[in-house]
């Protein structure tokens, strides 16, 4: 990892560690688009994310994300396999599945009590998170080609 990228990641993590109590192991909520981008970029998430975040990580997803990947069919089969290897977190709508972005948004509402990172490629999901006041406490992971980038969600 380049020095400037490492410094930026360290700066963002330090901010969240000091102000919001984010601690290791970092819990990263993955959605289908992030898994698909990792597959296309041939990124080993279990190896690369701990190295990038300079600490222990837990890769997590929700039942709604898995259900969404299942319904999208063969095109996202590889992303579904990646998501199935993650820990599955219980979401508030386990009976009536919603879209992956709505589910991840609901998981980090109300102050993000579990200190989740949200790993998504959807710009619209990131913009949704910007509109919710309490989500200043969540971070977003984004993949650019084969490089992960942590960005802070601010107004």
UniProtKB/TrEMBL annotation:
InterPro entries for this protein: Fcf1/UTP23, PIN-like_dom_sf
Chief site of localization: nucleus
GO BP of this protein: rRNA processing
GO annotations of cellular component type: small-subunit processome
Function text: Involved in rRNA-processing and ribosome biogenesis.
Plastid listed as a keyword: no
Record localization: Nucleus, Nucleolus
Pfam families: Fcf1
Family: Belongs to the UTP23/FCF1 family. UTP23 subfamily.
Protein name, per record: rRNA-processing protein UTP23 homolog
UniProt KW keywords: Nucleus, Ribosome biogenesis, rRNA processing
